Every structure is written in structure tokens, then in C-alpha cells.
Amino acid sequence: MQIDLSNLGKRYNYEWIFRNLTFTFESGTSYAILGHNGSGKSTLLTTISGHNLHSEGQITYNAGGKSISPEEAYRHLSLTAPYLELVEEFTLLELIAFHTRFKPLRHRLSHPALIDRMGLQKSRNKFVKDFSSGMKQRLKLGLAIYSDADLLLLDEPTTNLDQEGVAWYQEHVAQNQQGRLIIVGSNIQHEYSFCQQRLHITDYHPVPRK
């Protein structure tokens, strides 16, 4: 998977979040989008994912040497973020079954095996609405990391995780890096320490007019 951003810009009303962003993301490499809270990290991730339309410039996607239309890019990616909600009326098993109707799991992983990897064996028949915030975040990460997707987008991935949860995240994202493009939006070092490349979103903030 390769993503090319060319003079990309995004604004809300008259305020530019970022502008003149030209960058290439390549498969097999992990990237960190860095910046303070409110600097535009999440906006860039959702723009790359197609959840948010850019205001100017161009995004092109390629996979296996073939061009992918922006409308089809979602088939190749998995996104997790604190603002994305789970279907809490499902049990854990029901939610995984629902999720995998749209995004199969990597390496033909079974549903019970995914639950084991998430460390949620005792909660397989528990309603997601009754999960703690940390369990919900681990579930979001597990579904994202283990989905069969070439592109993995992680926005503030350790939100609501304790020290054990952070270690779990680091272990499982490391085990699932090979052959993928991973982009992490963060300002916390332990979330992106494995990333080989850094992009500082503030480098693309427009200069205020005097």
C-alpha cells in the first residue's frame, strides 16, 4: 500500500487545519503523525481514511502496483480512534461476528483466537456496554490490528489503557507490522516508539497573516 499526498489542505469554514502537505507513505514502514492536542493529527488521519474530505490538493492510493479509487480505499484500511463508537448492544462474540462480515481477520484467525489474543476470554458472552473503558479500547485495537487490512490507522491508541494495556498494545502492534503501512497519530512517545518515520503536522500549519 502506498499513499501520496500532494499539496493537501483541510479547512473548517475559514480556518486552515493544515495546508501544502506533500508526503508519501509506503508499505512496510510505520509513521507517526506528531503534534500537540488540537493540531490536526486526527483530522489528517480521518482525511487519509476517507472519513473526512480534503479541501484542496490530492490523495492517491496504490496497492499491489494498482491504483485504488478514493471511494474504494476503505476496503484496504482499518481505523481506530477514541471518538469511534462500538455497537454496545452486542456481546463480544456478536460484535466480532458483525465486524468480520465487513472486515475478515488476518491469517484466517478464528473468533475465539482473537478473543484469546485480546485477553477477554471471560467476557466472550458479556455485553460490550458493560465493558470498562480499558476493555473497550483493547477491543477497538484488537479489531483494528487483526483486521485483514494493508493500512492500519491508529489515533491516540492507548487512550483509557493502563500500564498492562499499553504493554499489550505495544506487543501486538509489533507482531503485526510486517507488510503493512501503519500510521499513528499521537503526542505520547510510548504510542509511536516503534515508528521509523515522523511527520510533524505543525510544519504544515499556515503562517498567520499579520
Protein model, in words:
With 210 residues, the chain is of the alpha/beta class. The chain has a single domain (2-204), classed as 3-Layer(aba) Sandwich (Rossmann fold). The protein has helices at residues 41-49, 92-102, 111-118, 133-145, 163-175, 189-192, and strands at 2-12, 15-26, 30-34, 56-63, 66-68, 77-80, 151-155, 181-186, 197-200. It has a 5-stranded parallel beta sheet, with helices on both faces. Strands 2-1-4-5 form a 4-stranded antiparallel beta sheet, with helices on one face.
Write the layout of secondary structure elements.
Layout: E1 2-12, E2 15-26, E3 30-34, H1 41-49, E4 56-63, E5 66-68, E6 77-80, H2 92-102, H3 111-118, H4 133-145, E7 151-155, H5 163-175, E8 181-186, H6 189-192, E9 197-200
Parallel strand pairs: 3-8, 3-9, 6-7, 7-8
Antiparallel strand pairs: 1-2, 1-4, 4-5
Provide a brief overview of the structure:
This protein has 210 residues and is α/β, with parallel strands linked by helices. Helices cover 28% and strands 28% of the residues.
Kindly state the mean pLDDT as a whole number?
A: 95
CATH topology: Rossmann fold
Radius of gyration: 17 Å
Percentage of helical residues?
25-40%
Q: Main attributes?
A:
five-stranded parallel beta sheet; 6 helices; four-stranded antiparallel beta sheet; alpha/beta; 9 strands; Rossmann fold; 28% helix; single chain; 210 residues
